[in-house]
Design a protein that fits this description.
Blueprint lengths: L1 E5 L2 H18 L4 E4 L6 H13 L8 E4 L1 E3 L10 H8 L11 E2 L8 H14 L5 E4 L21 E4 L2 H7 L12 E4 L2 H5 L4 E5 L5 H9 L17 E6 L10
Length: 244
């Protein structure tokens, strides 16, 4: 595990984008595992800037997203399909057919989860998986539980996650209660993992996840077992980690 400290969100975003851009340059047809939420927006903005300067080419890049709300169609401005097109896909020269997000409108959860797992395998797996970190330690939508979910699955969102997400919706009643998400096992099969965190509010969970016991009650703690994990965080988010 390698940890890089940034002074603020902007520097964190730039450092994370550097790691992703290096992957694209070294392997133009790489498979990027992508995340949504407020944390990676700056990273995507930086990648777009480098693309516009001619430093990056996305023509051969393939992507798979971590998750998608169940029940939101792709035209909904809160769907993760919409988010990815708004913040990255529509701003670079990536081939639309090479981008993949779980189908939130597929009513058969077993069918969709099986399809997504097979899709990832058919692409040769994920070269680098970008992750954010939830306040309760969730990665993707893998919530605290009694065991680690192995594969892509449909999950009931916890009240804390619904509460954290309701700022994006007109009311709490509009927040979806379920989502399709890569499982912990799926995430851990990525060749490399890049976790980005920022803000004082994440300091406690960062310390618990990266330096506490490995437990499904803190899903991100499993990352301690991965052979190639890079954490990029700002000073506030890394304030409570051991300094040795």
């Amino acid at each position: 595990m390698r940890i890089y400290e940034a002074k603020d969100y902007q520097e964190m975003s730039r450092k994370a984008a550097n790691i992703l851009s290096a992957q694209i340059i070294l392997k133009p047809d790489c498979v990027l595992g992508l995340a949504t939420g407020s944390t990676p927006i700056g990273t995507y903005d930086q990648l777009v800037q480098w693309y516009e300067k001619g430093d990056l080419d996305f023509r051969e890049v393939r992507t798979v997203n971590l998750d998608e709300y169940r029940g939101l169609d792709r035209g909904n401005d809160q769907s993760y399909y919409y988010f990815m097109h708004q913040h990255l896909f529509d701003r670079v020269n990536i081939v639309p057919e090479n981008t993949n997000v779980p189908d939130g409108m597929e009513p058969d959860s077993e069918k969709e989860c099986t399809r997504y797992e097979e899709l990832i395998r058919s692409m040769g797996g994920v070269d680098i998986q970008l992750l954010g970190l939830g306040h309760n330690g969730h990665i993707g939508f893998n919530e605290p539980d009694s065991s680690f979910a192995k594969t892509t699955h449909c999950v009931d969102l916890t009240e804390s996650t619904i509460e954290a997400n309701k700022r994006f919706f007109a009311s709490a009643d509009d927040v979806p209660r379920q989502a399709y998400t890569m499982g912990i096992g799926t995430i851990m099969r990525a060749k490399k993992i890049l976790l980005i965190v920022n803000g004082e509010a994440k300091a406690d969970i960062v310390a618990r996840a990266l330096f506490g016991p490995i437990t499904p009650e803190v899903p991100a703690s499993v990352l301690q077992l991965h052979s190639d994990v890079v954490i990029v965080g700002d000073s506030a988010a890394l304030a409570k980690i051991p300094r040795n």
